[in-house]
Amino acid sequence: MTHSNLPAYRPAQIALHWFVMVGVIVQIAIHEPMVRETTAQYRGVAPDPSDATLAMMHGLIGTLVFVAVLVRLWLRFRYGAPGHAQGTSSVQAAIASLVHNALYACLLAMGITGMLTRSGVANLGDLHFFINVAMFVLIVLHAGAAIFNQFVRKDGTLARMIPALRK
Question: Is residue 104 situated within a structural domain?
Answer without folding.
Answer: yes
